[in-house]
Amino acid sequence: GAVLVVGHAGEIVYERAFGTRSIGTGVAGTAEEMTLDTVFDLASLTKVIATTTSVMQLVEHGRLRLGDRVATYLPGFDNYGKGLITLVHLLTHTSGLAPDLPLEAVFEGSKTALARTFVQVPVAGVGERFIYSDLNFMLLAHIVDRVSGHSFYRFVLDHILLL
């Protein structure tokens, strides 16, 4: 299903819900009609809309280079065989880093997540294979913080969403 809203000159000129949505998962999931107030989980769209765009804007302005090593911007990251990981490896999911952090240990906040990423041992060699990794984009967001001098959130608001 989908929800379409078209705006023009500050006014909504068309809105319509199409199809169905699934409530629940698996066999127990039930289909319901899509409504105008249906909320969608955008999840990994942040990677392509916010993170990749932020990094590429900084590349465009000469503040980053895709071949730069991550440890250039995040000192201490280069341990456990991570010294050769570059921004392009993070962007293309070829860093060798695991998909995410083990969730057995409870933690809060991005600083703790960053510290835990620093001590992660790669699960594959740099550039060896594609592994879809949330860690890659968390690292890129921290690099945007450091290079831009603003929080990632603020950078996205000011330079992409223009809010």
- Beta fraction of the residues? 5-15%
Helix content range = 25-40%
N to C succession of SSEs: EEEEHHHHHH
| Secondary structure tally: strands | 4
Shape summary: globular
Order of adjacent strands in the largest pleated sheet? 1-2
- What number is the mean pLDDT? 91
* Terminal-residue CA separation: 29 Å
Largest sheet: 2 strands, antiparallel
* Class from secondary-structure proportions: alpha+beta
Q: Point out poorly predicted stretches.
A: none
- Enumerate how many helices there are, as a single number: 6
| Overall radius of gyration | 19 Å
Description:
- The chain is an alpha+beta fold and 163 residues long.
- Helices cover 35% and strands 14% of the residues.
- The chain has 6 helices and 4 strands.
- Strands 1-2 form a two-stranded antiparallel sheet. A two-stranded antiparallel ribbon has the order 3-4.
- A hairpin with a 6-residue loop joins strand 3 (20-23) and strand 4 (30-33).
- The protein is globular, with a radius of gyration of 19 Å.
- The protein starts with a strand and ends with a helix.
Features:
globular; 163 residues; two-stranded antiparallel sheet; alpha+beta; single chain
Topology:
Elements lengths: L1 E7 L2 E8 L1 E4 L6 E4 L11 H16 L9 H4 L13 H5 L18 H9 L15 H15 L3 H8 L4
Antiparallel strand pairs: 1-2, 3-4
Helix pairs in contact: 1-5, 1-6
Could you write a compact summary of the structure shown?
It contains six helices and four strands. It is α+β, with helices and mostly antiparallel strands and 163 residues long. The model has no long low-confidence stretch (mean pLDDT 91).
